Amino acid sequence: xxxxxxxxxxxxxxxxxxxxxxxxxxxxxxxxxxxxxxxxxxxxxxxxxxxxxxxxxxxxxxxxxxxxxxxxxxxxxxxxxxxxxxxxxxxxxxxxxxxxxxxxxxxxxxxxxxxxxxxxxxxxxxxxxxxxxxxxxxxxxxxxxxxxxxxxxxxxxxxxxxxxxxxxxxxxxxxxxxxxxxxxxxxxxxxxxxxxxxxxxxxxxxxxxxxxxxxxxxxxxxxxxxxxxxxxxxxxxxxxxxxxxxxxxxxxxxxxxxxxxxxxxxxxxxxxxxxxxxxxxxxxxxxxxxxx
Length: 292
Known about the structure:
By secondary structure, this protein is mostly helical.
């Protein structure tokens, strides 16, 4: 029974491949570009006949061959999206596929393909939230690859890209030097104080000496003071931060402790709950009644 099932699957794959070849020949004859047949992301899981990972591998092999030859941006994007739909845990397809979609050397590359690459990376971030490279690449596509003359659209994309870089730099394993780029972007957006605050935060939590020096230099540039003066202040704050972190939540990464903070008290004062925190004994509190 198992042998028969495998044979049927192989026959279906061969038939599909033959149909795809005929379709490609037809399109090549009319457009000069041979786009491979690719199921839509919604249909891909069904046409795989349950062999989703196998189908994803086969499509990936096809994608590599297609991308290495004469291809179109639409053909590359369709293959990448189908593979991600077939196997969402196929980590490689998100980074490799997004780069292929946004830097396709074939014809037809446009704004929509860059946006589709970002959506692909956003799906990858949901599957692999601990991966800093996906938000980093998505941010770079917003900031570098998407081009417009509309100042409102430009600012919106710059904001979106900067937020993604901020997410990336706070992910374990990310290079802290990303902080200098983020500071430049925040300054460009008119958010200089936010840029300074984020640089101070990164200096506090990074253990990379070279990266810390770069961050200090950038902060000194924004503050218009000697970075050595800032270093003394921040290193004292870092010592206080490390003492609190190791005492209160040593099981957390320092970047997470910075967001969560110290533990809350185990209970609360019922009097505060009843009076809203007002000291009824030690304060002159008179309730004001409005006339009827």
